Every structure is written in structure tokens, then in C-alpha cells.
Amino acid sequence: TYSYPTSKQLLERALKVIPSGVYGHLGPVEGSMLPPSAFPFYASRANGAYFWDVDGNRFIDYMCAYGPNILGYNDEEVERAANEQAGLGNCVTLPSIKMIEFAELLVDTVHSADWAFFAKNGGDATSFALTIARAETGRKKAIFVKRDYHGVSPWAKLIGNAGVVEEDVSHNLYVDWNDYQALENLVEQHPGEIACLMACPYSHGNYVDNELPAADYWSKVRALCTKHGIVLAIDDVRCGFRLDLAGSDHYYGFKADLICFCKALANGHNVSAICGIQELKGTAASVFYTGSYWFSSVPFAAGIATIQKLKRIDAPKLLREIGQKLTGGLVDVAKSHGFHLNISGELPLWYMRITDDDTQVLHQAWIAACVQRGVFFTNHHNHFLNTALTDEDIAFTLDVADDAFKAVKQLLPQYA
Ligand code: PMP
């Protein structure tokens, strides 16, 4: 099984000059989503469905850089487009025509898009959505769904997070996912005060089974927002282009006012987008919002090539097929060992959890055993699929999963 001596040495080196060495949810904290004993810290290269760590271990990557990798790393078409643009210029004083072409493509592709605006991170897009909603309505409050994640801006955090002050979140209201009645009550308690409802297309929080929208949830939410003049902003940063190229609102049969994209938008090139309806275009234009790299053209060229290829190969359909084979196989392997693996969420970004143990010990041990055999899963976050995965990769994954269950039964005989 894999070990990570070089990763560990590099982490020591990094800790001297970088706060926490690797920050965010990849941080090396025992008891975190990624126990440091089981996971490498640094990658050396990536290609297709794989990445290699600094110790030379190869992994089938089911995290896909937490979403950006949708066509496989180093996709030839995307990289060719990016390289061609790099030869012409990337970060220049003026934007290039690629920015317009990319916006046109998104307006053609995304159901709720009458316009597109580009930034860099998902949090840039969600922050812009909130600002547009406030500018449009003249109201301060926003409703969020518990467990949704909208980035690292202070408004998107919770009191108790380091450095967040009460005023940062004093206009935030929270509801439970799929509880329409609670949402309606909240809206009625705050007449004329709510600028925005921001939500992910379905509940894909960490540490819990992911939950799809109830049958009529979104149509009722859409009607409620329209009735009360609330801007409905969909955070499609994580699901975007994996469920439906026209947007996850389209997938679930409703129309957002604003929709935020990032991760899969340019197959790993650095760009995010916010798209919206015609009625909000003037307000979007009135908000001063920009950044040092926001006009860079290489990611626009990469994004155009990405969306074109996703359309040509019908990526969402392909990802669902891959997801069906993979998760069906994993469930069967678990069953053959007497375990129940619960699959939740949408297949292109499925969440999985072994349900035979409330302490998470069994689940984490199995995930760790898979990782140490070259299948990069994670413990308590949804996974991601890319279209470069082959049937051989899935067969390899199922073999590893089987081996990993055997290893876990030896390691933890109480579960055997
Ligand atoms: N929204 C969702 C649903 C996300 O998954 C993420 C990133 N994990 C964000 C927003 C924030 O995006 P970024 O980290 O690029 O700012």
C-alpha cells in the first residue's frame, strides 16, 4: 500500500512558510475530512482521470480537483485552445474578443442566461449575486439554506468562524433544505425585507447524505420569490455542467434569476461566471465589480473549448452512465462483504457513506484503504466524475474497493 514520505517532508517545509501548510479543507488536521495518515499532501502531475503525488503514487481521481476537472486533466482540445490564446496574450490591459465569445456561448447554452459576467472564484460569483440582489431590491436581508456552502467571504460564513463579526452575517436568515413551509413562514415574517434567496440546486453538504429537491420544492420556491420580489440566485458552482449544460435550475424544471458557475466551467482554467435574466442586467452593470485577472483571456478560450466539448459528447449523460456503473459496482462490492454503502445526491457528484457504523471509523478506514491502493476517494464530501474515466478505471476501482474491504476486516475485526 502507498506511503507518503515525500509529502510529509514537504508539509514540514511548507509549514515554515505557509499558514497550515495546505489550507482550507485540505489542511492536515487529524480528525478532519482527510486524516493525514491516509492521504498525500502534494501532487506532482495529472493526466486524464489520474494524478500522481510527489512520492510517485498514481491515483484514479474521484475528487477532480473538487470539481474543475470534468473532461480529464490536460484535455487536448481545451489545452490547444488555451495555448493558442496564450500565444496571443492572456492578461492584457483590455479584454479580448474571447470574453464576448464566451459570454455568447453561455447565453446560448444556459437556460436562465440573458447575459454572462466573469470573475475568478465561485465566491466572487456568489458575492456578486448577493450584491446585485441588494442593489436591485434596495433590501438588506438574504435567506440561505443550512449546510449550503457559498465560499469564504465573511457574509458566507457563520458566527464562530475565526474573524467573522456579528455585522458580517447580521442580515442572513437560514432555513432547512426542502422545508418549503419554513421558507414561506420566514418570507412572511420579513415583508419587503428580503433581497435574495441563495441556494444550491440540491443539498450537497459535508458529513451528511446529500438530499435532492422534493418533487414540487423548486416550483413553489420559484413562485414564492416571484410573488415577494425576491431575487432567486442559484449557486451552481459545484453541480454546474455536471447535471445539465443548460444549468441545474433547468435540470430541476425552474428558472433562476441569477446563476453562479465556477468549477467545471473551463476544465481547470481559472474562471467563474455569473449569468442572469434580462431584468437584472442593468443592475449588474451598475455594481462596481472587477479584479486584477478577471479579463484574462486564456481561461475564456479554455472555457469555450470546454463547453463546446461538453455539448458535443453530452457530458451530463455520460457522467450519469459512469456514475451508475461505478456506484452500482461499489454497492455490490460492499454487499458482498456484508456492508451497506449508501449512495446519495446526483450520480455525477455522488456522496457515499457506509451505514453499518455510527462512529465513522469503518467508513474512514475503508476510504483510507482505497486511497492507499490508488483510488482517491474522500471521507465526508461528495465526489466528482470526469468523462476521461474508462471501464478499465471502474473495474480497477471495484477491485481496489474489494481489497480495501478485506483489509478493513483484518484491521477492524469487530466489523468482520
Ligand atoms: N459554492 C459552492 C457550492 C461550492 O462548492 C464552492 C467551492 N467549494 C463555492 C461556492 C466557492 O467557490 P470558490 O471556492 O471557488 O470561491
TrEMBL record:
Superkingdom classification of source: Bacteria
Cofactor(s) the protein requires to work: pyridoxal 5'-phosphate
Keyword Metal-binding: no
Keywords: Pyridoxal phosphate
Keyword S-adenosyl-L-methionine recorded: no
Record-level Gene Ontology MF annotations: pyridoxal phosphate binding; transaminase activity
Signal sequence extent: none
Pfam families attached to this UniProt entry: Aminotran_3
InterPro entries: Aminotrans_3, PyrdxlP-dep_Trfase, PyrdxlP-dep_Trfase_major, PyrdxlP-dep_Trfase_small
Family the entry assigns: Belongs to the class-III pyridoxal-phosphate-dependent aminotransferase family.
Protein name as annotated: Glutamate-1-semialdehyde 2,1-aminomutase
